Amino acid sequence: MAAKKQPLTKIFVLDTNVLMHDPSSLSRFAEHDVFLPMITLEELDHNKKGMTEVARNARQVSRYLDEIVTRTQAKMEDGFPLSVNNRSCSGRLFLQMKQMECALPEGMPTSKADNQIIIVVMSLQKKYPRREVILVSKDINMRIKARALGYKAEDYFNDKVLEDTDLLYTGLRELPPDFWELHGKGMESWQEGGHTFYRIKGPLCPSMMINEFVYHEHGNHLQAIVREVEGSTAVLETVKDYTHEKNNVWGITARNREQNFALSVLMNPEVDFVTLLGQAGSGKTLLTLAAGLQQVLESKTYSEIIMTRVTVPVGEDIGFLPGTEEEKMLPWMGALQDNLDVLNKHDDDSGEWGRAATFDMIRSRVKVKSLNFMRGRTFLNKYLIIDEAQNLTPKQMKTLITRAGPGTKVVCLGNIAQIDTPYLTEGSSGITYVVDRFKGWPHGGHITLQKGERSRLADYAAETL
C-alpha cells in the first residue's frame, strides 16, 4: 500500500503591522514557514525609536529575530528553525536575500512599501507553484490589492480572543421557568450577614461561573450571585437591592437589573477586578465613580480614586498641552467632569457653599493619570478606573492591571462597538481579552450593561443611527 502523501506546508509572508501588533506572531504559524521581506525589516528599523507601544513592539521583534538567527547555525538559504522561541512551532523563518522582480499592473508604483511586499508574494508563488503562499496583514486595503491580483491574503487571527463577540461572557444569565422544579429538591437555605444563601443541585450548576449573576423572573423573583460551584452543586447568594433609595450609593440608585448587579460587584471589597461593558449612556462611569466616592470618602476602604484613559492615538505624547500631567489629561477627561457634576448635584440640602466644599473635597481625592507613565508604578490601597479600555491591546491591559498593589481595586470600562485604535477589533481588544481570562475568578466580576439610561434622545440615537 502506498504511503499517504503529507500535505505541503504553507508560506506566510508577514506585513510589518502584524509584527508590530503582536511581537510573538513569528511563533504562531505551527508547521508552516514564515517569510520576511527586506522592506519589513526596514520598516521595523524605522519604527524602533521612541517610547510608544509600537516602538517597544518593534524592538521586541528585533530581539526575537536576533535570537532566532544567532542561536542556530543554519544557512541563510535553508531558513532558521522557529522552534527557538516555541517548541510547538516546527516551521522555518526565511529572510529576503535578493531583489525580487515581478511585473505589477500599470499604475501600481513599485516604490511603495505595500507593493514591494506584494511583489515578494508574487515571486514566491512563481518559485513554489505547488505550495500555498499567503500574505498576512492587518491592513485591509493591502489585502484587497493582493486578492485583486489573484493572490491569497489573510488578516492575522492569532490575537483574537473570540471569533464572535456575541459569545463573550456577559456576567449574567436568566434562569429557565422550570429552574426550581429541577434544582429545588433537597435545597438548603440559610441567612448570613443580611443575605440569603441557597445550596442547590441540578443540571445547570456545572456550567455556572463563580461571581456570575443569575436572575429568575417567573413566580418568585430572584437576583443572586454564584458563590461556589462544585460538581453539580452550587451556592447562590441574594443580591442587595440598589434600586431602593435606602441603599443608594453616593445618591445614585440602580435603574435596571444590570446596574444593580454592577453596583453589587463595585461595592464588594472582596472583588479586586471589575469589568463593565456597555453602550454609550448605560451608566458605566457614573456607577463606578459613585461606588468609588462612597468607598473612599464614606467607608474609607480605599485612599483615593485614580482615573486614566487611553489618549487616542494610543500612547502619543501629551506634552503639547500646557500644564502639569493632570492638566494635560483633563481635555481627555470630559466624562469624569460630567459625572462629578451629576454626583455633586444630589447634595441639595447643603446649599451652594456646601456643594462647592463637597466638590473641592471630591476633586482632592480623584487623581487623573496618563497611561504613558504607568510602567514601574505600584498603586497601594487605590480605586483605579481605566476608562475607554476597548482601545487597549492585551499587552497594555496586562501592564496596567499588574500595577495593582495590596488593597487596590481595578475597574475597566469600555464599549467594544467604539474602538478607535488602528488594527484592534472587537475580538482582539484588551478588554475582550481580560473579560474572557478573568471569568470565574473568585475575586473578579463582570457585567455587560444592556440598556442606555442617559436620555430618551441618546437611547433613540443609539438604536437608530
Automatic annotation (TrEMBL):
GO terms for cellular component: cytosol. Pfam families: PhoH (PF02562), PIN_4 (PF13638). Residues 10-144 form the PIN domain. The keyword Transferase does not apply. The keyword Manganese does not apply. SUPFAM superfamilies: P-loop containing nucleoside triphosphate hydrolases, PIN domain-like. Gene3D superfamilies: 5'-nuclease, P-loop containing nucleotide triphosphate hydrolases. Keywords: ATP-binding, Nucleotide-binding. In the N-terminal section; belongs to the PINc/VapC protein family. This is Phosphate starvation-inducible protein PhoH.
